[in-house]
Design brief:
mainly alpha, 4 helices, membrane, transmembrane helix
Length: 114
Amino acid sequence: MKEHLYNTLIVIVIILKAAFLLVSITSRVSHRLGWDSRTVKMLEKMREESLAVSEVFMYLVLIVVFFPRRRVSDIKIGKEEQIIAFVLGVLGIIHTQWDLFEGFFLDINHLINK
């Protein structure tokens, strides 16, 4: 694995996750304090965009780490990767569109009971 690429991606992911956290907190504060709607909308858009960008870089880290041509013995998971994988899982669950999740099973139930 190209260590420089990997290390660079890890640093980018950490910076982007910190930015996402900062924008998310600011967005929540703007809602609660009743900031003007233009600012609130801009912060919400930035929150969604920063989440998307940070997720893409997290996926790139996963691709670099688990590239199919790598030998299994070369794949080592360190603390940083463990934290990133954990955060990806938590954010994935938090940002799941649960109405779609529920709708999927309701639709299957509807098809079965037809």
